[in-house]
Amino acid sequence: MNNRLNEYIDGIFATYEGTKSVGELKADLLADLQERYRELLAEGKDEETAFEMTVDSIGDIEETVQEVSQLSRVLERKVVTRFDSTDLRGSDFAGVVARDGKFSTSALRGSNFANADLTGGKFKSSDLAEANFDGANLTDAVMTTSELKGSSFHRTRLVRTDFSISGLEGVRFADAVLIDVAFRKTDLRHTIFERCTFTGVDFSISDLSGLNFDGASFTGVKFDRAGLEGVSMRGAILRDCSFRGWSKKYYRALATVNFEGARMDKLTYAALKGFGVAPANVTVE
Amino acid sequence: MSTNKVTSDLLRGNTDTMILRLLTEADRYGYEIVKLIGERSKGEYELKEATMYSSVRRLEADGDITWYWGDESQGGRRKYFRVTEKGHATYAHNKTTWAYAKRVLDTLL
């Protein structure tokens, strides 16, 4: 509505962008200023006067912004020390760099790790429910035996990340490329995967029952001894995937997987066929 | 000039309590706080946005207030501030302190 006001605020905040708290302050301030500006215009002030009066009502915002961003930096500094076994519920770690950070056995429920660099981070046995990992880098991060219920992984960088034996109910992976990620012995029945690609992912001994992988792309993915009852892989692409089980139950479940319209290489197809599963309407390439 | 400075420092020093007072009446959002302080002081004291947010942040860190998202259509969602149990106590305490300081100053000045 008022570009000039937006630009003015952008200018003030330009050097401090990046942390969630600063972003929030900026949004709050802008909402206030827009309301004031609208009121001044409604009172009959001309645009120039209204703008000047609005800008004048801000006061020394730089000082406040500095206070806010310093608060976030204190958190960033703490990361390089240790975070083991601490209560950090609802903390703001957005955009921080915390390589090899130690967060094991911590209460981090509801924390914000958006766009943070958490390469090599240790999150073992922690409470990470409702946490936000959108856009974060979790290369080589260890998140085993953690509670991740309801957390979000949108456009998260996931390379060799280990989620084995963690609580992933209601967890959402979206627009992510999963490379060599491990989900061993994990209950994934209520996990959401949207527009993800899977390369070298290990789903061994995990329960994938009822999951929807329509249109997904799988390369070198292991589904060994996984629960596959009612899984939908319509239109999916499978390359060099492994389906191996040791029980009749496994093959009975495998027969219920919907491969309608899927494309797969000869090896994957032969593997399925060898186990008595001959998916119809698939393209073998 | 210097009188103005002293006055405004004195007033600004009590921003936290002013905001707590407004929030003991009702939950309010940022601009509402600034506007009400302007109106109630009949324009004698203009609380700047920066001072208000700095104060709000402090009150929040001290556990005197919390906030929640309101659901307003115009101008997007607003953050509403609400006074906590602790905030009520802080307000009462600050009022007493001020009454005491005022009495002492009145006898000295």
Give keywords:
heterodimer, A: 285 residues, alpha/beta, seven-stranded parallel beta sheet, three-stranded parallel beta sheet, 28% helix, B: 109 residues, mainly alpha, three-stranded antiparallel beta sheet, 5 helices, 11% strand
Describe this structure in words.
The complex is a heterodimer of chains A (285) and B (109). By secondary structure, chain A is of the alpha/beta class. Chain A has helices at residues 3-13, 20-42, 47-56, 61-80, 248-254, 266-274; strands at 152-154, 158-159, 172-174, 177-179, 192-194, 197-199, 217-219, 237-239, 263-264, 283-284. Chain A is elongated and about 80 Å long. Chain B is mainly alpha-helical and 109 residues long. Helices cover 64% and strands 11% of the residues of chain B. In chain B, strands 1-3-2 form a three-stranded antiparallel sheet. Chain B is globular, with a radius of gyration of 15 Å. The mean pLDDT of chain B is 88. Chains A and B meet through helix 2 and helix 4 of A and helix 3 and helix 4 of B.
Write down the overall geometry of chain B: globular
Number of helices of chain B: 5
Q: Tell me which protein chains meet in the greatest interface and how many residues each side has.
A: A-B, 18 and 16 residues
Binned, the helix content of chain A reads 25-40%
Query: What is the beta-strand fraction of chain A?
Result: 5-15%
Widest β-sheet, arrangement of strands of chain A: 2-4-6-7-8-9-10
Q: Helices and strands of chain B, in N-to-C order?
A: HHEHHEEH
Largest sheet of chain B: 3 strands, antiparallel
CA(first)-CA(last) distance of chain B: 20 Å
Number of DSSP strand runs of chain B: 3
Assembly state (oligomeric): heterodimer
Mean pLDDT of chain A: 86
H and E string of chain A? HHHHEEEEEEEEHEHE
* Main sheet makeup of chain A: 7 strands, parallel
Q: Quick one: how many beta strands of chain A?
A: 10
Strand line-up across the major sheet of chain B: 1-3-2
